[in-house]
Description:
The structure holds three protein chains of three kinds.
Chain A: H1 8-22, H2 26-45, H3 56-83, E1 92-97, H4 103-115, E2 119-125, E3 130-135, H5 141-160
Helix pairs in contact in A: 1-2, 3-5, 4-5
Chain B: H1 2-30, H2 34-59, H3 62-88
Chain C: H1 10-36, H2 40-43, H3 46-69, H4 75-105
Helix pairs in contact in C: 1-3, 3-4
Amino acid sequence: MSRIFPYPVMTLGLFVMWIALAGATPGHTVLALIVSTGSALTLKALGEKSTRVKRVGAIVTLARVVFVDILRSNYDVARLILFGKRLDRKSGFMTVPIRLKNPSSLAVLSIVLTSTPGTAWLDYNAAQGTLIIHVFDLKDESHWLDLISNRYERLLLEIFE
Amino acid sequence: MSVVILTVAVWFSQIILALAMMLVAYRLFIGPRAQDRILALDMLYVCAMLQLLVFGVRTGNAIFFEAALIIGMLGFVATVSLAKFLMRGEVIE
Amino acid sequence: MTVDLVEYPLWAAILVSSFLVIGSLLTLIGAIGIVRLKSFYDRIHAPTLATSWGTGGMAVGSMIFFLVGGGRPLVHELLLAAFVTITTPVTLMMLGRAAIYRDRSSARPGIPPLGRRVELNLSEKPSEGELS
């Protein structure tokens, strides 16, 4: 089974996406099957490791936390852009030590940090486990350190590692 | 009543998006450096995609949504290859 | 294919309109940010306004519009939102790294090195300057 479908979730996702976009005719079902299994086998040939999710429940928590944070930081950044001259704002680079090692959890963290307005992921150093981010409103460095390590990293450690 | 509200909202968001595209195009022209222009180009792609989304709501035609998807993908590939070009000075290594 | 606007319920119209207006206004604020902010590393935060809740708001508005009115499946908006969310970090990260690389090779002050840990002087901001 795992020889034909090395990445079941990705295969299923591609299949569903194809059907949803092209319509559930018999021809498209066959084509979707070929494309989804073919791309999964290609990925396997490239030697990509599959990821195991440890706790599915934590994903929901993470999604909720990120949703709220994106809403709030949207408001913050919009306010700073519009009235930034009057508000005292200082931006800058920041080095953050992180414990995550798994590529999937690092990818999720980069998506979370960058799609939240106000923080942008710039570089990750695997040897030292540090991360360089640029912060739009760097008034309080400990606030951002606390946000990353206690809010996101803890949940990601639960999910992946 | 709902016809008026929806028509006004759709027109309003299209005008606002057009305004955003003009502002971004201004940054695309003044630069000052290459990465600023690429960032503005990426934002221009996003605005065009949203503009097509509003067109889709206005006409109810699914073809606009497919066009929006394609614009989004093209914008991603274009920006990544341009950023790659800035990094090393060549796209294909 | 088209939605009947005359019979369209008022609450849904208000909801759809407010989502569309919020999404477009956030995109406009992002565009204003791109024009107004002074340094490149500040400007890199502006498009995320458009890609997070600008796109999200408009996709949700469009989804509610067609969910209430009927007419077509909602796959495109979902795919669009997911795709934009996943790709924006990649583009911004590559652009930011390219900018750092270029700034370091032209020896600007206050730019962190790639792949090596240093203590940063946070009061120093990268300055805007010559064309390159």
